[in-house]
Amino acid sequence: MKAKMHGHNFFAIVSFLVVFLTGCGENVTVLHPQGPVARSEYYLILWSFFIMSIVVLIVFVLYGFVIVRYRERPENMDYEPPETKANKKLEIAWTVAPVVMVVALAIPMAKTTFGLENPPVHPAGVKPMTIYVTSADWKWLFKYPEQGIETVNYVNIPANTPINFELTAVSAMNSFWVPALGGQEYAMPGQRLKLWLQADRPGTYAGRSANFSGKGFTHMTFDVVAQTPQDFTRWVHDVKTTAPKLTDDQYKKILEPGLVDKMTFSSTDPAKIMQEETAGGLSGNSGQHEMPPVMPNTSSTPNHK
Predict the structure, then answer these.
(1) Which long-range CB contacts under 8 A does 25-34 form with residues at least 24 apart?
(2) At what angle do helices 36-69 and 88-115 cross, to 10 degrees?
(3) Which of 8, 23, 132, 237 gets the most CB atoms within 10 Å of its CB?
(4) Residue 163 clears pLDDT 90, i.e. is over it
(5) In contact, 202 and 161? CB cutoff 8 Å
């Protein structure tokens, strides 16, 4: 019990130092993780900060010691230090110490990074869900392959469910980032990269592009709306019954460079998907099966909750 309390105290102290040094704790979303992926990365940030703090502390202590111990004083004004040879103990110390610190950083970082390649631990009976994400200039397109619906600039997900975002792009390379839920992953033409995220509880989490991609980059944002499983099921039903279907003109218009509002669509056209995937370079994915692309459409979103 005491060990657990000490662990909590350690992380609390380190968190305080991070917040104190940044001066903006309330606005640093990564310091308020809302899912298991973000939490793993949060602890990794704290551990890295702790290791680097040790380095800074050692440097400042040695610096203070040297300037005090070896400062010039009236009694040693003419002192000339004798010639000295290498000090093996000191050389071993300043060689081994950095190696130890690098290893202390590398092992948890590698373990966490490779661990995040798999879906987060989730309740028994909960099935992970896949959502295809396509970036275009300057908007985000989301396709739900199981539900057969499309959204633009927002994505609804069930809370407490691992979500496998599969990312690609039809224009410039981009970066998909939801700070409260986890780290970023690139969206690249001709590639399909994966990012597992999961929200602990219902809520709306801000997402954005973390990669400069032109004049509309700063407005390339989206919302991740985590809902209870029941609310998510109702939302899917509402979209299927009330949202407009995809049209060829809508799809072409949404891919044009520019900004668009949130949109919702109740269907997709497989033939158009394959055509646009080929245009975006996805057909060049050797050794991988084709990924159904994300279908955009232009209409208002009364169904967005």
Answers:
(1) 29/179, 29/180, 29/206, 30/179, 30/180, 32/180, 33/180, 33/181, 34/180, 34/181, 34/199, 34/200, 34/201, 34/203, 34/205
(2) 170
(3) 132
(4) yes
(5) no
C-alpha 196/C-alpha 182 separation (Å) is 8
Long-range pairs of 6-14 with CB within 8 A, sequence gap ≥ 24? 11/43, 11/46, 14/46, 14/49, 14/50, 14/53
The predicted-structure confidence for 144-154, as pLDDT tens digits, reads as follows: 988 989 999 99
Burial 249-271 (b: 16+ CB within 10 A, else e): ebbeebbeeeebeebbbbbbeee
The closest of 288, 302, 276 to 134, measured between CA atoms, is: 276
Two tokens, residue 122: 């989730």
Q: Which residue shows structure tokens 């099921």?
A: 233
Residue 206 pLDDT exceeds 90 = yes
Which architecture, in CATH terms, is 2-72+87-115?
A: Orthogonal Bundle (1.10)
User: What does DSSP say about strands 263-265 and 149-152: parallel, antiparallel, or unpaired?
Assistant: antiparallel
With cut-offs at 50, 70 and 90, classify the pLDDT of residue 90: confident
End-to-end CA distance of the chain: 43
Residue 293: predicted pLDDT? 40
**Above 90 in pLDDT, residue 29?**
no
- Architecture field, domain 129-284: Sandwich (2.60)
Same fold, 2-72+87-115 and 129-284: no
Contact 296, 152 (CB under 8 A): yes
What percentage of residues in the chain have a pLDDT greater than 90?
A: 45
For the chain, the domains span: 2-72+87-115, 129-284
